[in-house]
Amino acid sequence: MDHNEQEQIALHRWAVIAEAAGDKLTARERGALVRQIAARAHPHPDGSSRTYSRGTVDRWLRAWRAGGLAALMPAARADTGVVRAHPELFAEAAALRLELPGRSAAQIASILYHRHGIQVSERTVRGQLRRAGLHREALAAEPKAYGRYEAGAPNERWITDVLVGPWVPWPRRDGSVRARLFLIVDDHSRLLVDGRFYGRENARACQDLLRRAITRCGLPQVFYADNGAPFSNAWLARTCGVLGIRLVHSKPYSPEGRGKQERLNRYIREAFLAEAAHHGIESLDQLNDL
User: Fold this and answer.
1) Fold exhibited by the domain 157-289
2) What does 172-199 look like in DSSP terms, one character per residue?
3) Is residue 156 helix, strand or coil?
4) What are the pLDDT digits (tens) for 225-262?
5) What is the C-alpha to C-alpha distance for residues 243 and 207, in angstroms, rounded to an integer?
6) Which residue of 144, 190, 266, 277 shows the fewest CB atoms closer than 10 Å?
7) Are 17 and 64 in contact (CB under 8 A)?
8) Nearest one of 159, 69, 61 to 53, comparing CA atoms
9) DSSP for 37-97?
10) CA 50/CA 130 separation, integer angstroms
11) Looking at the whole model, is its pTM more than 0.70?
């Protein structure tokens, strides 16, 4: 496993534990969150969906507090290549799972060791069985309930979005580009943390706006975004992981937390962009200075 793969695993582990890593959580609150995390399936960088035990989540939390993102990188494996060298072990592991579907990966690894004297890690057994479609059913997900949501304090949760703006220059002519307004709103105070028009909707624009927002208002605990390209990229995932920000992507067709953003977007269109277009726009700099 090279460094990039190790970093991807570390970012994945941070995404799993982030909601339980807050400094202000009581032991009871953190324990409840860890149980919820362990009950959910989490998308893995390899494309699979995985569940983790409470012990694993607690271990990752301790590692994060001790050494940050670097401490979440996987260590070198002592059993690398064991299953490839002994393919019969996987066939036996599969038979053990089919024999008793509730049998855990740890139990299967223990049985293999006592039968053959070959040490195979629980993680290897779990991964092999998952890739073969023999993983245990994940616990039922929590039911969705949509209602009014509001963060409890400033900087607890920032919501970001992109609003398609006017052509610049306007009136439209050769060389005009469609302006994109990147916005960050504080969920508790409704404060517009920062907003800026860019000529392209890409990760670089998101990077610039987030840097400006953090410089002005400090670090948020949660950065809530949709699944568009500016917000679903390795740069943003790594930045949030290093800074200890929990990056959350909204699920398609999920309305939770988007109402405030939509109301702000409507106000900007009706009260700002309409007036700006009426008077004419010569450049993005002029639009950002209005």
Assistant:
1) Nucleotidyltransferase; domain 5 (3.30.420)
2) --TT-EEEEEEEEEETTT--EEEEEEES
3) coil
4) 988 889 988 899 999 998 999 988 887 655 555 667 77
5) 14
6) 144
7) yes
8) 61
9) HHHS-EE-TTS-EE---HHHHHHHHHHHHHHGGGGGSPPPPTTTTHHHH-HHHHHHHHHHH
10) 8
11) no
